[in-house]
Specification:
By secondary structure, this protein is of the alpha+beta class. The chain is built from five helices and four strands. The two termini are 22 Å apart.
């Protein structure tokens, strides 16, 4: 990755689409994707962006929540920030990526407002 691509990935928050949202055939074959991304300047043991994408009834369902806990733990405690449904199509995989980008930006601001002045990261 050259410096231009590296800067682009950082500006985009989550990084390149293909690294965040798999191809359509992954979901057509019942694949489930989950991941996380640390917020800059926030201790990842306090908070991070967490997401899950799964195929449900010929649609893609996306979930986002504040970390560091897993999906099941947060779902049982009603801590999923939001859910959104997209078509199970190439356009749906693109749309869900853009939604994740938007949610990352919103949740990064929330996290910084809550934890931004605590425990500066040393790495």
């Amino acid at each position: 990755m050259d410096n231009t691509e590296n800067r682009s990935a950082k500006i985009n928050g989550l990084g390149k689409q293909k690294a965040v949202v798999p191809r359509l055939d992954y979901f057509e074959n019942k694949g489930v994707m989950s991941g996380s991304k640390e917020f800059p300047h926030i201790d990842h043991m306090k908070d991070e962006f967490r997401y899950k994408i799964e195929p449900v009834e010929n649609q893609l369902k996306g979930y986002v929540w504040h970390g560091p806990y897993c999906f099941q733990y947060c779902k049982e405690r009603n801590q999923i920030k939001t859910e959104m449904v997209f078509p199970l199509s190439d356009q749906g995989t693109e749309d869900i990526y853009h939604w994740l980008e938007e949610m990352y930006a919103v949740m990064e601001k929330e996290s910084f407002a809550q934890y931004g002045n605590e425990y500066p990261r040393s790495y």
